[in-house]
Amino acid sequence: MKILVCDDDKEIVEAITIYLEKEGYTVITACNGKEALRELQDEQVQLIILDIMMPEMDGLEALLKLREYSSIPVILLSAKSEDADKIKGLNVGADDYITKPFNPLELLARVKSQLRRYTQLGGLQEKSSHLLINGGITLDTVGKQVTVDGELKKFTPTEFRILQLFMENVGTVFSSAQIYERIWGEDAYATDNIVSVHIRRIREKIEIDPKNPDYIKVMWGVGYRMVSKG
Fold it and tell me: Which of the two residues, 4 and 181, has the higher pLDDT score?
């Protein structure tokens, strides 16, 4: 597995590289968003660890450009702990984030979680019935595509997995913690914002009016459920 690490702090890049290489990953490095995008033109990577605050082109701008053509999982690094900064990163297409200073074991756990889900999305785990249909939504678990009323929509790996969870369990109510544990594969802790941002992004792609959703409903005080539109 090949991972791109992008941060303008050389010491952080070197430290992350050491941690990842000890786990057997191949690491490519960049010091700003422009350099990261250039590297991606020549290298095929399975994950990107991307700092937010960088010169020339910051991480959020680079992520916006990346999401125009790629669904590679991205973990954002941020020196800021405020929820607003994390939510902004999730809104532009990040799959996860980690705040500096970070625990190396936590970073490795998040890396492995994202790579595991990305590998699964690559079609290594096929199902006998690969089309999930609810109303105008068709989710192809093998082709890893979603169409809404016949129109192909782009989903990040995390968005795809959440939608698949709902499509496989129409009518079932999931709390934010349950969604996080199933999708991220780790215990939930202060995860409401992460889940709600991803739900909002999914609604923007599947709903006619995302503010008044027909498919994914909030069950106040309980969680979310997908309504059957058969």
Answer: 4
